[in-house]
Structure formats: structure tokens, C-alpha cells
Amino acid sequence: GQCATICPVGAIVEKNEIYPVWQALEDEDKHVIVQTAPSIQATIGESFGMKPGLVVTGKLVAALRKLGFDRVFSTEFTADLTIMEEGHEFLQRLEGDNNLPHITSCCPGWVKFAEHNYSDLLDHLSSAKSPQQMFSALSKTYYADLAGIDPESIYTVSVMPCTAKKFEKERENINAGSYKNTDAVLTTRELSLMIKEIGIDFTSLEDEEYDELLGKATGAGTIFGTTGGVTEAAVRMVKEKLTGQTLERLDLGFRGIQEAEVKIGDRDLKLAIVSGLQEASQIMDEVRKGESEYDFIEVMACPHGCVGGGGQPLLADEEKKDARGEGLGSIDEHKYIRKSHENPMIKKVYEEFLEEPLSNKAHRILHAEFKDRPKT
Ligand code: SF4
């Protein structure tokens, strides 16, 4: 099929990538791995008539194995890694160079909008790539080495909430090493079509678990899929690092709100959580005029964050998006480890490969450069 999905930014209309993914799955020489964005587990059920917000992680994994993927991983792992990299950048700004506010960059729809409209403020954006790109970069380096697989034969697919991720994988200078890092991006709707195409009865699938290597994640990684989640995950990490104290209360209540103040040591940090490009423009205009007091600004291009993304099941009203966000929150609440820096797999990937947050190697693999683009 050639149905197009439309990016919330309005600038990106792309044809679907179902066909190349089928081709890769049929190619015996390819090792095809898939990553699923945090939000998908709370949205894909709707494509099969299930209740909005119902968490169907186990069925999602089972369906992907039935489709023939060799490894099924969760992007939540690199959401944790994003927090490590971006959180340390924020720490550096707080402790030294003071180029505040620090603005998030994990939403490629927002990054592209900023490149077009706020290129004078790009140095406030974290240079961390989105979790999707971090995952793909590690797949063809760290994972390839560990698994003993030639990166050339690895084909990486990501299941994402929007077409902005399709744009992101084609950006210049986005690839670590000489291989294309993300080969194909499927939206939630495209994946649903594939599942239907081969007649999998999604609702009756037995739950399965993600593959482990690059699969384990914390609750902090999960809530990336909803507005306020990135801020909450970052504060959990930054607060412990700055004060040396263990954070007992984890539900900081940032999800679903627009601003907050949080005391870290002797500082009161002002945080803003923005979803939707109109809100983003308002706050960026204030930053430009020097009228903004915020230290940290989380921006998601879609209202409600990725649970409201343009590639999610259609006809999502406010109520459905809220239910999806709550579904993700409930996964976080039930996770044993809820802070990114306590994820044992994150510690391992730094020990074995990346050295430490913001090391030269981490920069080469996990960070990107943004650029000035013509005004929209
Ligand atoms: Fe995509 Fe999420 Fe950004 Fe929307 S908020 S453009 S779904 S990354």
C-alpha cells in the first residue's frame, strides 16, 4: 500500500515502509532487529479493538516475533541512555557554563521546527540524539560486536509514533560509523497493517518478553512516551547526582502539567513542559527576548507527547490520549528500577563501550549536530 501518514509538524508526508521491511524479513542473509518506542505498548491495542491505554507489551513482542524479527528490543533502553547523556549536559550547564535554559531534543518533530524557526537558539538544545537513533547506532556497533554479527548484515527497524522519526533517520550526519543506522521506520498504524496482513490474531496472543541485550529498561525510560515524562526521568537522575542523596519520592507529578519548581540542593530549578508547537513557539519567543526564567524546557511537538503522535491509531480524542498516558505511567509505577542511572544494562554499556556520559566516544555515537534551515 501507499497510504501516507502525516507528521504533526505538517512538513513531512512520507509513504509507508512496509514493503522494504517485508523484503528484509524474507532475506535470509539479513539479521533483522526491531525496537519499539515506549508509547506503542499503550496505543497499538486500539488497532485491534482493545481499550485505549491498555498496556499490551507482551502481545506486541509476541506479534513482532511472529512477523519474523530476529531480535525484539525496546527503545526504552536508549531512553534511559538519553537521560544519562542529556542529564549530564544539563548538569554541566548548571554547574558551569550556564547556557540555560537547557532544552530537550528527543522529539525530532520539535528539533526540525526549531531548526527552521529558532536557529539562533539551537545551542540551548541538548545535542543528544533521540532514543531511536541512539538505539540504531548501538545496534550496528556495540550489539554487532557482542553478537558477532557483521554490521552490514544487520537491518534495523523501529516502530515509532510518528513520521518525524522517518525524517530523522535520513538527516545528514546522523549515522555513527559508515552504516545507515536506522534502515526503516514503521508507524504504529503501519505495524498494525502488517500484523493484520498475515492474519495474526493480536488479541489472543500469549505474552512474550523483550530480548534482553539492549532490552532492559527502567520505568524512567517508559514515561518518555508521554508529556512531562522526560522531565521527570531527568530530574530523578540530576537530583541524585547533584545532591548525592537518594531520591525516595519518584512520582514527581510532572506528567500532564506545564510548569514546576523543584528544589535541588540550594537551588530552585524552574521547569517547563511544553507539548504542541504553538506552545513551544510562545516559550521560545520568551527565551529569545531574554524573558524566560526557566532552567529546563521539555518540548514535544505533539499535544500529549508521543501518545498523541501522528502515526498512532487514528481518531484519538483527548480522553483516549489521556488513557494512553496513564497506561504508560502505570508501567513505570510497577517497575522495580525507576531511575535511568540505576539500570544495570546502562552501567554495562558505559563500562564496556561508551566509557562515561559525554565521553568522546559517547559524543561520536550518541550526539548529533543541528542546523539552520529556511524559515517556515
Ligand atoms: Fe513524534 Fe513524539 Fe515528537 Fe510527536 S512528540 S513528533 S510523536 S517524537
UniProtKB/TrEMBL annotation:
It comes from the Bacteria. Keywords: 2Fe-2S, 4Fe-4S, Iron, Iron-sulfur, Membrane, Metal-binding, NAD, Repeat, Translocase. The keyword DNA-binding does not apply. GO terms for biological process: ATP synthesis coupled electron transport. One of its GO terms (molecular function) is NADH dehydrogenase (ubiquinone) activity. Its cofactor is [2Fe-2S] cluster; [4Fe-4S] cluster. It is found in: Membrane. GO terms for cellular component: membrane. Belongs to the complex I 75 kDa subunit family. This is NADP-reducing hydrogenase subunit HndD.
